[in-house]
Design brief:
Length: 268
């Protein structure tokens, strides 16, 4: 079976041309992800989680190594081909929602369809808003929505193109614990329907509730396996890594805690 995500010896070096400024954020890592899997990426701040996720989402290109997305080597694609591949396969959800403030919820959700000039974009955006339980907020602007509603609009925008992979960078990080749990349940429901879910999180209860966890440290994959085992081992190394993370006590299904969240970074 074709694996939707395969990376081989992948590196991301920022400022690669300037020896004194160069940062090796991702350092020769390799792994693959099966269709329909849910995967948490955990690790201390600055260990390279977002850098990796941005490459998986084709928002950034690797410096070295190979990334096969749905069997296509992204390095061989030009900008247009890459944009099309991303549009077809990837939905991205950010901690700070990244909604356009002057547009309504419906217009925000419709946006990815307009890039591809898809037919029936209005109806599809309305259906996606309905899927996240916000049909009655279609005409609201982001400032008229709660944090959890904004994140649900962002999820509707991510799924409106029916992507095979949903990438989430701290999707519950800016939300209180109850709202965070609702957003997590929505993402898990999408995963049960077949969408591959890859999520960066500082919240270890959230990480535990997924199938698998990758523990990153200093740009490498330090551990990879069933989430409960990886989170337990990570907790044991926390003093060593000096990370601030939410409690992982209580096991899978617990409410994700907002402790350790860094707060919303964007205007909406
Ligand atoms: N655009 C950039 N230019 C230079 N260095 C960068 C850039 N983006 C990230 N870095 C550096 O790369 C390293 C990894 O950053 P990254 O954002 O991937 O970490 P992270 O694990 O997502 O951290 P956090 O948990 O705080 O979000 C850090 O040392 C960071 O300072
Ligand atoms: Mg990050």
């Amino acid at each position: 079976m074709l694996r939707p995500v395969v990376i081989e010896e992948l590196s991301k070096v920022y400022n690669a041309g300037h020896a004194e400024l160069a940062v090796r954020a991702v350092n020769r890592i390799s792994f693959s992800i099966d269709k329909g899997q849910s995967v948490a990426i955990i690790g201390a701040s600055g260990c390279g989680k977002s850098s990796l996720l941005n490459i998986l989402g084709c928002l950034d290109r690797p410096t070295e190594g190979r990334y096969l997305l749905e069997g296509r080597n992204v390095a061989e694609l030009d900008e247009d081909e890459l944009a099309r591949l991303r549009n077809r396969h990837i939905g991205f959800v950010f901690q700070s929602f990244n909604l356009l403030p002057r547009m309504t919820a419906l217009e925000n959700v419709e946006l990815p369809l307009l890039y591809g000039a898809a037919k029936g974009s209005h109806a599809r955006a309305a259906a996606a808003l309905g899927r996240v339980g916000l049909a009655d907020r279609a005409g609201h602007k982001p400032t008229e929505l709660s944090g959890g509603q904004k994140q649900r609009v962002a999820i509707a925008r991510a799924i409106v193109t029916a992507p095979s992979i949903l990438l989430c960078d701290e999707p519950t990080g800016a939300l209180d614990s109850r709202t965070g749990r609702e957003v997590l349940e929505l993402l898990q429901a999408l995963n049960r329907e077949g969408t591959t879910l890859i999520m960066v999180t500082h919240d270890l209860a959230v990480a535990r509730s997924l199938d698998r966890a990758l523990h990153m440290r200093d740009g490498i994959i330090k551990a990879d396996g069933p989430s409960a085992a990886i989170v337990d081992a990570f907790v044991a190394t926390q003093g060593e890594e000096g990370d601030v993370v939410a409690s992982s006590k209580g096991g899978s299904g617990d409410a994700p805690s907002a402790a350790g969240a860094t707060g919303a970074g964007g205007p909406c």
